[in-house]
């Protein structure tokens, strides 16, 4: 087995990465807001999960994963404890988790982003790659929400409007 060590110069810094992620979270929040209450929890296309269930998945990843990274805990992925029955509750939980993300993200030292971590006891990658996965997964599920909104005849938020 051979190993190689590479050094990487920073392309973006820690604050820029967090701002980028929070911009996506802001846009996902706007997407949640665009849904009518009933359709948020019931509407789907092609057998995919309703958007509220996709959002619950996102809630079970970002904040809990960063908490695990900071505490070096490899707890399993779990969305069972996230119970929301209204759009208001979902938005409140979204805002709580955004604050959790912000708090734990800031506890990771800049040099810590290159360290590997076995996320949810399953996938071992550098921390920055885990965070990029969180963002990619959110974009993927938000795009599903955009398809739902368009199928409902509702204009989704413009994807480039990521700032609060």
List keywords for this structure.
globular; metal ion binding; mainly alpha; single chain; 164 residues; two-stranded antiparallel sheet
Could you explain the architecture of this structure?
This protein is mainly alpha-helical and 164 residues long. The chain has a single domain, classed as Four Helix Bundle (Hemerythrin (Met), subunit A). It is 56% helix and 5% strand. Helix 1 runs antiparallel to helix 4. The longest helix is centred in the C-terminal third of the chain and has 25 residues. The termini are far apart. The model has no long low-confidence stretch (mean pLDDT 90).
Give the class from helix and strand content and strand pairing. Answer: mainly alpha
The stretches of 5 or more residues where confidence is low (pLDDT under 50) are none
CATH topology: Four Helix Bundle (Hemerythrin (Met), subunit A)
The counted number of beta strands is 2
Strand content: under 5%
How many individual helices? 5
CATH superfamily: dinb family like domain
| The top level CATH class name | Mainly Alpha
H-E string: HHHHEEH
Give a quick precis of the structure.
With 164 residues, this protein is mainly α.
Topology record:
Elements (H helix, E strand, L loop, with lengths): L13 H21 L2 H6 L8 H21 L15 H19 L10 E4 L3 E4 H25 L13
Antiparallel strand pairs: 1-2
Helix pairs in contact: 1-4, 1-5, 3-4, 3-5
